[in-house]
Amino acid sequence: MLLLAVDTATPAVTVALHDGDSVIAEAGQVDARRHGELLLPTVDRVLARAGLKLDAVTGVVVGVGPGPYTGLRVGLATAETFGLVLGVPVHGLCTLDGLAYAAGLTGPFAVATDARRKEVYWARYDDARTRVSEPAVDRPADIAEQLAGLPVVGSGALLYPEAFGDARGPEHQSAGALASLAAEKLAAGEPFLPPLPLYLRRPDAQVPKNYKVVTPQ
Amino acid sequence: MADEPLVLGIETSCDETGVGVVRGTTLLADAIASSVDEHARFGGVVPEVASRAHLEAMVPTIERALKQAGVAASDLDGIAVTAGPGLAGALLVGVSAAKAYAYALGKPLYGVNHLASHICVDQLEHGPLPEPTMALLVSGGHSSLLLAPDITNDVRPMGATIDDAAGEAFDKIARVLDLGFPGGPVIDRLAREGDPKAIAFPRGLTGPRDAAYDFSFSGLKTSVARWIEAKRSAGEEVPVRDVAASFQEAVVDVLTRKAVRACKDEGVDHLMIGGGVAANSRLRALAQERCERAGIRLRVPRPGLCTDNGAMVAALGAEMVARGRAASDWDLSADSSLPVTEPHVPGTGHGHTHDHDHVHEMSKDNLYS
Ligand SMILES: [Zn+2]
Fold this sequence. Notes:
The complex is a heterodimer of chains A (217) and B (369).
Chain A: E1 3-7, E2 12-18, E3 23-30, H1 35-50, E4 59-63, H2 69-86, E5 90-93, H3 95-103, E6 109-114, E7 120-127, E8 130-131, E9 136-138, H4 140-143, E10 151-153, H5 155-159, E11 166-168, H6 175-188
Parallel strand pairs in A: 1-4, 4-5, 6-10, 10-11
Antiparallel strand pairs in A: 1-2, 2-3, 6-7, 7-8, 7-9
Chain B: E1 6-11, E2 16-23, E3 26-34, H1 36-40, H2 47-69, E4 78-84, H3 88-105, E5 109-113, H4 114-120, H5 122-126, E6 133-138, E7 143-150, E8 154-160, H6 166-176, H7 184-191, H8 218-233, H9 240-266, E9 270-274, H10 281-294, E10 297-299, H11 303-306, H12 310-322
Parallel strand pairs in B: 1-4, 4-5, 6-9, 9-10
Antiparallel strand pairs in B: 1-2, 2-3, 6-7, 7-8
Helix pairs in contact in B: 2-3, 4-12, 6-8, 7-9, 8-9, 9-10
């Protein structure tokens, strides 16, 4: 088994290879503005470092968000297209589940990532592998009370220490954690999410004034 | 193979998810999924709605195109994709998918210019482009006059709109007349039953001291809207067909006049017209009339190839392969304002960067050591 995991739902562009036992290569970069440029070279680098070619991959794992839209789609478009060409399954996982897995906590906690617009994407967990709420998007102040006393993991927590008293790392998503979680779920025969984006927000239905600026200067 | 490259092209710059397959200058498949209906109630293209639709349609549209073409992905000689200009988020879906597709297949990737693709698509209809070709591109997003001595590496802007695109003017007037979105087809239809000389609407930028090849449709749009409002406030019925015909005449008069003038000035004996507005029947007729009078050969692809599609991207990609142009790097980015002077985005060969990895595994055959 060789899983290729990618996640672009957060500012991190993260890629990992997992052979069923462990992560054999991982690379990534935190740069919220360059997901489109960075992902493919990162995939290429991870494969090169493992001494493998893409056609050795037996399954693709992709973080489906929630995440700010533009970057999120880079990972999904890439994962789905790999799946098409390779003829292998594409397994969707909630991005927050990767952070929860990486946190490795054994008691109740929450994960929060930056949703921009002064909001966070978040969900509650009973332990590192067990999510107990649907991912949601809210203002930190509006959920501070219900998460009071709980550790809150991720950049969304660290950004708003006034709302989350016990904010903790890991700050950023790791495809290695996502791949490890996927390998466990595959071994246990547990279901995945479809490789479809979790936007959690409706699109801004605004037509910009010059909606397609393509006039040469 | 070299003279007849088999190329798949992906286009996602606006609201059409297009995937085309060509062999040289022969069209094999042109699969399209459009989100235009989802934008209709907003009166224009909503970028986030378009981007979401592209992601949903991407893989199924690739599959459909390959099936239509009756070729195997492994037989492709290259993958082309619109790198820009266009809506940033929309472009990014196509660029991401194209990179993954090319990488997984082990084929070269060509990031190409949307405007150059609009010109090159005519090769699929009328054979190889004459060099140079003068091109008038008119759509909801662009109104440009371009001189193309070599579509793969030399495209020169002659003029462009200084305000609205021609297609936008159609959309806006259609909105004022309550005709819905997009405005082009319905105005074209109504105009056939109207009098193009009924109302003398202004011709923008046609004075002796105005830029010879630039366009302006904003003043026309305002003038038409005022005329309609004046009728309405006087309690008179708006002669919709005459308004449509007179407005359309003002637009196509300026477009064709300037395009023919550019051909004459530059000594170019071919004019191609592309973009969604090239489907307009009056534009085609008037351009034909004026080109014939000036001894210019007019080339206009069928309407389905004038609007945004994947075949045009594949057509330009095939030309890039045929002429041995450099492929793009894996870090190709979507460039919403890619200049028309860059028909493609060649790689530097240094697409891989040494950055802050948290990688601990190093294989022996690391390509980047
Ligand atoms: Zn176009």
